Structure formats: C-alpha cells, structure tokens
Amino acid sequence: MQESSKVYTVDCPKHCTDKVLVYGSGVYHTRSGICNAALFDGVLKKGRGGRVTVYKVRSVDINKWEQRWKTRNGVNSFRRDYTEHGFLFKAPTIPCSMNGTSINEKDWFAGFCPPRCDQVNYQVKGNNIYSEDSNICAAAVHDGQINADTGGLISGYRTTGLTSYVGNYKHGITSTTHGVSTASFIFQVSCTTTAEKFTADIVMLICPSYTECRDTPEDTRRVYGTYVYADVSSICMAATMDQTQRFEQSQPIYVKKSKGMLSYYGTYNRATGITSHSYNATQNSFIFMSLMTPHGMRRTGKMMFK
What mean pLDDT comes out for the span 115-123? Predict the structure, then answer.
C-alpha cells in the first residue's frame, strides 16, 4: 500500500510471523503482508525467504469466499470483499495478437503488454471503449495507458457491447469506426475524465477514490450541476458528490448520458465536502444509475484470461 510504483521487488526474510495477515488469493489486498502472501501464493517456500516481484494494479473485487478464510502452503488468507488496489506476483503476458474475446467473462483483467505492439498488424475499434475484437495492447497504447516503445502493465474491465464505436488516431494508433459488438473492454479512467469522450448511452466505469482524486488540481476535476451534470464535469468527482461512489473507495459506476440542459445549478454537499458549480447550456449531460447492469444482473469480477 505504501509503494507508488507499479512494479517493485521485496526481499523477504526466512521466517515471517502469522500475525501479518493476508487477504485474497491470486490478487491480494494492499493491506496484506507481501511476504506471507508470497508464501500463500507459492512463489516462496517456508523457511527459505527470497526476493519477489510485486505487480500493483487497481482491481474491483477480491475473492468472495463462502468461508471466512482459506489455507494454502501453511498460510491463512482471509476474506476481504473489496479493495481499491491490489497486487499480484504472476502478471500474465498479453501477446500483441490477443484481443478482448480472450478476456474471461469476469469483469477485471490485468497483464503485461510487450513493446512495439503498434508495429504488428493490429486491429483497434473504438475510442476509450473498445469492441471485444480489438487487440488489447494496441488499444492500451491508443488509450494512453502505456508507451508503444516500452509496453507495460495494464489493467481494465470487460463491459457491455455498444451499438457503434467511433474511431480516431491517437498515440500512433489508428482506431477504426465499427458497428454493433456483443461486448467491450475499457481501461481505468482518471480523476479528470469527463463524459465528453464517451459516445455510448450507458457506460460502466471504475473511478479512483476521492482520496486519490483530491490531490489533483481543482480546475481539472470540476463538477457542474446537481443530480444531472453537464458532460464537461469530472465523472468521478460527480459520482462522489452524488454519493453513487463511496467516499474512500473506487467501485463500478454506471453513467447514463442524455440531452443537455439550458443551465445547471451548483450546490455544496456537506456529506462529501464537494462543491459543484453552476454552468450554462451544454449539448449533453449525464446522470448515475444503480450498480445493476441494464439487464438487471449485478456485476462482479476477478482477473483472469480464458
């Protein structure tokens, strides 16, 4: 939890006390003891110690076990349903050729993209939200998640398909316009992401928590309106103000875009301490839906590929 780097190494001692708790399996809560998690995961053996590589990612759900804990390799790992960030020891490699159809039906995925995925015969369809037949790593370059020259660790989410995808050219990647798709995938959004860039009527996003967003410059994360927000508003800040998102945690939110209003009235929310501002007419606006999908199914997920 104290490390800001996405990838780092830890030297573990030979003997770790059981008092240092572990939460999760495969993907671990950031409050877990790294060395005990490595023992549970099997990347270290008891009594030997050693150096482990840790990959830190943003995740949606840790394991929802029926029982309170599991035991593996002599280490107990406990249930903890939700975390904003997580870490793992075995980040899979995502080949340049892999597309979104290889993502498991669970929502969340993570892995390493190799360098130069922009030099292969890639296919990317969409902008910010990509059709499932798009190549994941090329789409990550297009979205600005990684640099094409170096590749890197990415994570994102599977979401519902759209009736159309609008392409453009960004970061050396040409994305094409596409028709209907049964599923999509999306990478993390930032504290300053506005609804302007999304063309779909309903979008599922995973926002950073307010704790993470409050350190960004206020001018880049403004909110305009109350309950109904101008599309130039920061989605994640509006979600916290609207109390659609918990103050200290990131979680899935559903954004529904609609026609704009002639004016937006700002207010101060005492519960969150966030002030929204008044604004003039916009072409589009947005509101927040419940955490249920348009089909009425509650969505949960873990990292995995088919």
Answer: 93
Q: Write down how long the chain is.
A: 306
Domains of the chain and CATH, by start: 7-88 (2.170.130.20), 91-188 (2.170.130.20), 192-292 (2.170.130.20)
> For position 137, what pLDDT does the model report?
96
**Residue-by-residue DSSP string for 101-149:** GGB-SSSEEEEEEPTTTTSS----BEESEEETTSBHHHHHHHTTSSBTT
Q: How many C-beta atoms surround the C-beta of residue 4 within 10 A? A: 6
Distance of CA 304 to the CA centre of its chain: 14
Residue 203 token pair = 């979008």
φ and ψ of 129, to 5 deg? -115, 130
What residues pair up with 229 in beta bridges, in sequence order? 225, 286
pLDDT at position 117 is 95
The count of C-alpha atoms lying within 13 angstroms of the C-alpha of 288, restricted to the half-sphere facing its C-beta, is: 24
Helix extents (H) in the chain: 34-41, 136-142, 210-213, 235-241
Which candidate, 255, 242, 245, places its Cα nearest to that of 204? Answer: 255
Which of 58-67, 165-174, 197-206, 235-244 has maximum average pLDDT? Answer: 165-174
Cα-based torsion angle of the residue sequence 167, 168, 174, 180 in order, rounded to the nearest 10 degrees: 0
Residue-wise pLDDT for 138-183, tens only, equals 999 999 888 999 888 888 888 888 888 988 999 999 999 999 999 9
Q: Residue 1 is encoded by which pair of tokens?
A: 């939890």
Which span out of 22-26, 114-118, 253-257 was modeled with the highest average pLDDT? 114-118
What gap in Å lies between CA 289 and CA 284, rounded to an integer? 16
83 is written with which tokens? 């975390």
With a threshold of 0.85, does the pTM exceed it?
Answer: no
Question: In degrees rounded to 5, what are phi and psi of residue 38?
Answer: -65, -35
Residue 117: partners with Cβ closer than 8 Å, 6 or more residues away: 96, 135, 137, 138, 141, 148, 151
